[in-house]
TrEMBL record, chain A:
Residues annotated as transmembrane: 29-49, 55-74, 86-107, 149-168, 180-205, 211-228, 260-280, 328-350
Membrane topology term: Multi-pass membrane protein
Protein name per Swiss-Prot or TrEMBL: Phosphate transport system permease protein PstA
Domain ABC transmembrane type-1: 142-346
Subcellular localization: Cell membrane
Gene Ontology annotations for the cellular component aspect, listed alphabetically: plasma membrane
Keywords noted in UniProt: Cell membrane, Membrane, Phosphate transport, Transmembrane, Transmembrane helix, Transport
Gene3D superfamilies: MetI-like
GO biological process: phosphate ion transmembrane transport
Organism field: Streptomyces natalensis ATCC 27448
UniProtKB/TrEMBL annotation, chain B:
Similarity comment: Belongs to the PstS family.
PANTHER family named in the record: PHOSPHATE-BINDING PROTEIN PSTS
List of residues binding phosphate: 62-64, 92, 110, 198-200
Coiled coil: none
Single GO BP term: phosphate ion transmembrane transport
Record's keyword annotation contains Metal-binding: no
Keyword Signal: yes
Region described as Disordered: spans on this chain: 211-239
Name of this protein: Phosphate-binding protein
Gene Ontology MF terms in the entry: phosphate ion binding
TrEMBL record, chain C:
Keywords: Cell membrane, Membrane, Phosphate transport, Transmembrane, Transmembrane helix, Transport
CDD domains for the chain: TM_PBP2
Location(s) in or outside the cell: Cell membrane
Membrane topology, from the record: Multi-pass membrane protein
Known role: Part of the binding-protein-dependent transport system for phosphate; probably responsible for the translocation of the substrate across the membrane.
GO CC, alphabetical: plasma membrane
Molecular-function GO term, any one: phosphate transmembrane transporter activity
Pfam family, one: BPD_transp_1
Protein's name in the database: Phosphate transport system permease protein
């Protein structure tokens, strides 16, 4: 894998491959220099024309870089290489364009959240503290989020995985089509509607009170289609030869799926499940309706109101005092860190379990 | 194969570690925040609270009374260890809906119950109906961001025209006439209103309709009907827009103006001096209100055209809603004891520091009497 | 698989036919149990979905029959009044426009980033970048909303003035000044929000592209772009479309970020840059807290329409995939 992907890097970097010996190439330092010139020109035009938005400067510089590379390369190296350069520079620019807002977002959250983050904040609930005042913590929200997301995953991940396996490995005929259709429908459920559904069935008709579990059920509804769609996509990518080889050896189909198909696509499936978890950890509306929100600790997800991190962030934002804003950013930071740790752990497991390939 | 099994054991170990870690985590948190900064100041002596009932009390509704509720809950919980009150500021409409569905012990609302809601409540309250108990009032401040103008005075017709996009510049003759000495800039007015439905909008537009019917032709309601202007979500949203935007004006609860250090408009009501948006002035306006409810229902009708000295008429009264008869047996004692505290002198006195207007004595007396008869 | 409207499309490596053919003769108990479990999950999913659909339809019918104005063409939302009058025209317009803007910006950029991570970036950089992108997908939308309102909106008015100068004559890009809290801003913010999701799934797909093809193309003297164009992109097309659908699902249903950034109104403005408009999810969030029972029904009815729109979009995507199915070179 390494050898193959590395080779093109060298090629475009300008080191003469045997193929391109007779071709004129731009020197290796050309792209960075063009980038610098473009950035300079962008700032220059921005300053000169008195454009007050730095976003414009960046856009001008990006356009100049892409154009410059293409024109230079077309002049020196010819059409095909120029197209390659164009693609390379476009990919780089799109990467940089996207990184800037995302980095700014992360930076803002970290810089503002770190102010209130300490052991007290993590180990205390809001207790009876009025929300407008400084102090208090997010312990109750952390517990709530862990339990609700955990329960939701326990419900949604197996159903989603098995459904995807059914669709890819067994699915033919009308039933499979219907399932696929409804999975598509489910991706469009607004989260508040899922919340209302559980509210009317679980709380109003069956008469249970608000609890973490009620919230987890609504979150599971939101999570299922995401798991199915991404798992489906990953399972389809498993080369058929692997299945055929395993079946030809007399391995039962279910063992083939469990031992060959799933491990091969485990990395992608994990990513899919993580993305699904990521989607539901940020949900506010169903939690508000079903888990109710609370200021004190409740360790039991099956009885009584709980809190959750996104709801906490939302409520603190609504309060609108400086102390509440600080707590909101702090809780958002914890939420992101929580998902990050989860993500790293899941990927670690996926890497362990993935079969070693020699690709 | 062997290698894989080893991996499985390891994965199991990781899982077990995660679960036990989570379990261990549940043991190390604390609800005790009494030691943390700033909380001590507003805590009144809990001695006068009569505790009754035990367990968890759920309530929800108006976000306008959220801060008051926070302090009441803090003080009440300090005195009554067995009771836990959980008030969620979901909005008045959602509060009444969940109350009528029987999910909560009481609701908080910025508007009195509608006749059809009272009719519905008869199903829930066996032998009785839901009633409005006025519990706390508050001035709705009109905050602005106009460079150079510090002591802006406006009256109802001008406000109506500004929020209806009929006056669009700060140096308009109508504004100049009310502010003879001020240097008003040539600046476009950016009037912000709430994008979400809200009791604050309801009370503000009721004032505009009541005090300037000729200039405000729209029906008052929770949804903004005025033409033009920009919108933002929540009181926090509009107040932060006013802070950011030069030339902006908007309406929100006084506490947002205080915490955001936003200057507020003084109202020319026809009284001798323009009236400032303060807690005391709001209390005075509430004492001008007339009862609008029947029987045990204590809903109030505010007098928006009052010319009384120092009465600030853009005022909001928020209610607690409970059944007069037929409250749920398991939550009744705690509800009664909590509402008794909130309407008591101590409960009302705790509010002033937060930008709320305590009820005038006469109304508070009536509320206490009614709370005592809840069953 | 035999008509364009077929739902389960043939993926590049056609897994189902071969697998299914063999499963037909499976008699082993293990197989039967496993099949039972996986079919059972499918059924469970269908049951849940049917229940939700029934619930939604029931409450929507209540709302639409109680509506005193035309539900589809009215430019207003007043469901809690004594004379309830509400309609979804503005919401449908705003939802579609902001999502289209978001997709137009996000998908090409996301494909670019995914290619960057899978084929261009130095390997030492590639996998940490993958983590970071996945992580960003987890940032709660309220945080995007806060960031959008405090950081993005103030920075965009300059750009909008610029767009107005050069493209104002189109009408679509005319800009009257003031805060940049328009549908276009919402589109940009949504694009930033869905970037990580689309990128993450696309990258995973690109990494799966058969190395043999890439090596073969390289051996024939193709440039890196030609390798990608001829062997990676065709292979990943269905994955990219599916990733975009995931992103679109989030964009269509996004609530909090839109509610904090947009200055909504019930008017359709010709210009995308002027404040105004609204989206289904934003409207639900704004109106829900003060809605009574009937108001909730009305909001649920609008949720149902959002449903249908998502469904149409997904169906369209499936059609596109089905049309392109003739490409199946990856099976080699």
């Amino acid at each position: 894998m390494t050898a193959v992907t590395d080779r093109p890097t060298v090629a475009s970097g300008g080191a003469p491959l045997p193929v391109s010996l007779k071709q004129a190439r731009l020197p290796r330092w050309a792209p960075p220099v063009i980038a610098l010139v473009a950035a300079g020109a962008g700032c220059g035009i921005g300053l000169g024309a008195g454009l007050d938005s730095t976003i414009q400067w960046g856009l001008i510089a990006a356009a100049l870089f892409v154009l410059g590379t293409y024109v230079l390369s077309a002049a020196v190296e010819g059409g095909r290489q120029a197209k390659d350069r164009l693609a390379t520079s476009m990919v780089w620019t799109s990467f940089l364009l996207a990184v800037i807002p995302l980095a700014s977002l992360l930076w803002e959250t970290v810089a503002r959240g770190i102010k209130v983050l300490n052991v007290y904040f993590l180990s205390h609930s809001m207790g009876t503290l009025p929300d407008a005042l400084p102090g208090g913590g997010i312990y109750h929200a952390i517990i709530g989020t862990l339990e609700q997301v955990g329960l939701a995953t326990l419900i949604a991940a197996p159903i989603g995985l098995l459904t995807a396996i059914y669709l890819v490995e067994y699915g033919r005929g009308r039933f499979a089509k219907t399932v696929t259709f409804f999975v598509d429908v489910m991706t469009g459920i607004p989260s508040i509607v899922a919340g209302l559904f559980i509210l009317s069935v679980w709380i109003l008709i069956l008469g249970f009170g608000p609890s973490g579990f009620a919230g987890a059920m609504a979150l599971a509804i939101l999570m299922m289609p995401v798991v199915v769609r991404s798992t489906e996509e990953m399972l389809k990518l498993v080369p058929n030869e692997l299945r055929e080889a395993s079946l030809a050896l007399g391995v039962p189909k279910w063992r083939t799926i469990l031992k060959v198909v799933l491990p091969t696509s485990l990395g992608g499936i994990t990513t899919g499940v993580m993305l699904a978890i990521a989607r539901i950890t940020g949900e506010t509306a169903p939690v508000l309706l079903l888990v109710w929100g609370a200021k004190t600790i409740n360790n039991n997800p099956f009885d009584g109101a709980q809190q959750s991190l996104p709801l906490y962030v939302f409520q603190q934002w609504q309060i609108g005092t400086d102390a509440a804003y600080d707590r909101a950013w702090g809780a958002a930071l914890v939420l992101i860190a929580f998902v990050m740790i989860l993500n790293l752990v899941a990927r670690g497991i996926a890497r362990w379990k993935a079969p070693k390939t020699h690709r | 194969m062997k290698l894989q099994r080893k991996n499985r054991v390891r994965a199991l170990a990781v899982g077990a570690l995660a679960v036990s870690g989570a379990l261990a985590l549940t043991a190390c948190g604390s609800d005790d925040t009494s030691g943390s900064g700033g909380a001590g100041g507003s805590a009144a002596k809990p001695a006068n609270i009569k505790c009754e009932g035990k367990g968890k009390l759920l309530a929800s509704g108006s976000s306008a009374q959220k801060n008051a509720m926070d302090v009441w809950v803090q003080n009440y919980a300090g005195a009554c260890k067995g009771t836990e009150i959980n008030y969620q500021p979901t909005g008045s409409g959602a509060g009444v809906t969940t109350f009528l569905q029987g999910q909560t012990a009481f609701a908080g609302s910025d508007s009195a119950l509608k006749p059809e809601e009272i009719a519905k409540s008869k199903k829930l309250c066996k032998g009785g109906q839901a009633i409005d108990l006025p519990m706390v009032g508050g001035p709705i401040a009109v905050g602005y961001n106009v460079p150079g103008a510090d002591n802006l005075v406006l009256d109802a017709p001008t406000l109506a025209k500004i929020f209806d996009s009929k006056i669009t510049n700060w140096n308009d003759a109508a504004i100049k006439k009310l502010n003879p000495g001020a240097k008003l800039p040539n600046l476009k007015i950016q009037a912000f209103h709430r994008s979400d439905d809200s009791g604050t909008t309801d009370n503000f537009t009721k004032y505009l309709k009541g005090a300037a019917p000729g200039d405000w032709k729209h029906e008052p309601g929770k949804k903004w009907e005025g033409s033009g202007g920009q919108a933002a979500s929540g009181s926090a949203g509009v107040s932060s827009q006013v802070k950011q935007t030069s030339g902006a004006i908007s309406y929100f609860e006084l506490s947002y103006a205080t915490s955001g250090k936003i200057p507020t408009v003084k109202l020319d009501t026809g009284a001798k001096a323009p009236v400032e948006a303060t807690v005391d002035n709001a209390s005075k306006a509430i004492s001008e209100a007339k009862p609008a409810g029947q029987g045990n229902d204590l809903a109030l009708k505010l007098n928006y055209t009052t010319k009384a000295e120092g009465a600030y008429p853009i005022t909001l009264v928020t209610y607690e809603i409970a059944c007069d008869k037929g409250n749920k047996a398991d939550t009744l004692p705690a509800t009664k004891s909590f509402l008794t505290y909130t309407s008591s002198k101590d409960g009302q006195a705790a509010l002033k520091a937060l930008g709320y207007a305590p009820l005038p004595t006469e109304i508070a007396d009536k509320v206490r009497k009614t709370v005592a008869t809840l069953s | 698989m035999n008509s364009p409207s077929s739902i389960s499309e043939t993926p590049p490596p056609p897994a189902s036919p071969a697998g299914a053919a063999i499963s037909g003769k499976a008699v082993r108990p293990g197989d039967r149990i496993f099949l039972g479990f996986s079919r059972g999950s499918g059924i469970a999913l269908l049951v849940i979905m049917a229940a939700i659909a029934a619930f939604l339809t029931y409450r929507s019918v209540l709302a639409i029959t109680g509506d005193k104005a035309d539900f589809f063409t009215t430019f207003d939302w007043n469901a809690t009044g004594t004379e309830p009058k509400f309609g979804i025209a503005v919401l449908a317009f705003g939802t579609v426009v902001s999502s289209v803007v978001a997709m137009v910006i996000a998908v090409p950029v996301a494909v670019g980033i995914a290619l960057f991570i899978s084929h261009y970036a130095p390997r030492k950089l590639a996998s940490p970048l993958g983590y970071v992108i996945d992580l960003l997908a987890a940032v709660p939308s309220i945080v995007y909303g806060l960031w959008g309102a405090l950081f993005l909106v103030p920075h965009l008015s300059g750009l909008y003035g610029w767009l107005d100068d050069y493209l104002g004559w189109t009408g679509i890009f005319s800009y009257g000044g003031g805060a940049a809290r328009s549908l276009f801003t919402v589109g940009i913010l949504l694009a930033i929000m869905i970037l990580p999701i689309v990128t993450s799934v696309s990258r995973e797909v690109f990494l799966q592209a058969p190395k043999m093809h890439e090596e073969a193309a390289l051996a024939l003297g193709a440039t890196r772009w030609e390798v990608i164009r001829m062997s990676v992109l065709p292979f990943g097309r269905s994955g990219v479309i599916s990733a975009s659908m995931l992103g679109l699902g989030r964009a269509l249903g996004e609530t909090m970020a839109v509610a904090t950034v947009l200055s909504p109104s019930f008017l359709i403005s010709k210009s995308l840059l002027d404040p105004g408009g609204g989206t289904f999810a934003q409207n639900i969030a704004s109106k829900f807290s003060e809605a009574d029972q009937f108001g909730q029904d009305a909001l649920i009815a609008s949720g149902l329409v959002l449903f249908v729109i998502t469904l149409l979009v997904n169906g369209g995507a499936r059609l596109i995939i089905a049309r392109r199915k003739e490409y199946s070179g990856a099976a080699a």
